[in-house]
Design brief:
The structure holds 2 protein chains of 2 kinds. By secondary structure, chain A is mostly beta strands. Chain A has strands at about 5, 10-15, 20-25, 35-40, 45-50, 55, 60-65, 70-75, 85-90, 100, 105-110. In chain A, strands 2, 4, 5, 9, 10 and 11 form a 6-stranded mixed sheet that branches. Chain A has a 5-stranded antiparallel sheet with strand order 1-3-8-7-6, with no helix packed on it. Helix content of chain B is about 0%, strand content about 60%. Chain B starts with a strand and ends with a strand. The chains are: A mainly beta, B mainly beta.
């Protein structure tokens, strides 16, 4: 089993829709999680950090469920510009700030 | 100003050659990383330096040798390039847990 797993998608949604992605992690000792956004042929850009139960930033909400070992990302009122791949990452609990990434979930927002 | 920069952006070379990629960050971060993203888009850490000291060394062929002359710079030298080394190599830096990535170097080995 991979340490961090994501549904690769693609998720095809119309503008204005609400969409949610889940990311599961296998290491129950992991404490910190991150969502990155990656556009085609670009670098990953940090979208949100999740250190406790959740985080919210505008249209984006991340939630952590430790009991079930997953993190979710909710995007409300989707925009065309939200189309990208969303990478989930777990901070390796053994120290040294090692991030373990999932393979990403592709989102395509259409008019 | 670009916070984490890498050179070159593209690198096309033949099998067996030796090449280097350079990374610089002006964020004042203490820790820098090299990641490899393969054709399946899977992003995997290779190395990490904290204040010029190697702290993460994943299972990477010893043809790959990182070097950090100071905490703002991290280079990656690759010897005897192979077809399987073709990928995008990303540099990143961090002060605490949040990592910030450079634009990537797209390496193609022919």
């Amino acid at each position: 089993r991979k340490e961090v797993e994501q549904d690769p998608g693609p998720f095809n949604v119309p503008e204005g829709a609400t969409v949610a992605f889940n990311c599961t992690y296998s290491n129950s000792a992991s404490q910190s999680f991150f969502w990155y956004r990656q556009d085609c042929r670009k670098e990953p850009k940090l979208l949100m950090s999740v250190y406790s139960s959740g985080n919210e930033d505008g249209r984006f909400t991340a939630q952590l469920n430790r009991a079930s070992q997953y993190i979710s990302l909710l995007i409300r009122d989707s925009k065309l510009s939200d189309s990208a791949t969303y990478l989930c990452a777990s901070l390796f609990s053994g120290g040294y700030n090692k991030l373990i990434f999932g393979a990403g979930t592709r989102l395509a927002v259409h008019p | 100003d670009t916070a984490v920069s890498q050179t070159p952006k593209y690198l096309v070379t033949q099998m067996g050659n030796d090449k280097s990629i350079k990374c610089e960050q002006n964020l004042g971060h203490d820790t820098m990383y090299w990641y490899k993203q393969d054709s399946k888009k899977f992003l995997k850490i290779m190395f990490s330096y904290n204040n010029k000291e190697l702290i993460i060394n994943e299972t990477v062929p010893n043809r790959f040798s990182p070097k950090s002359p100071d905490k703002a710079h991290l280079n990656l030298h690759i010897n005897s390039l192979e077809l399987g080394d073709s990928a995008v190599y990303f540099c990143a830096s961090s002060l605490s847990y949040e990592q910030y990535f450079g634009p990537g170097t797209r390496l193609t080995v022919t």
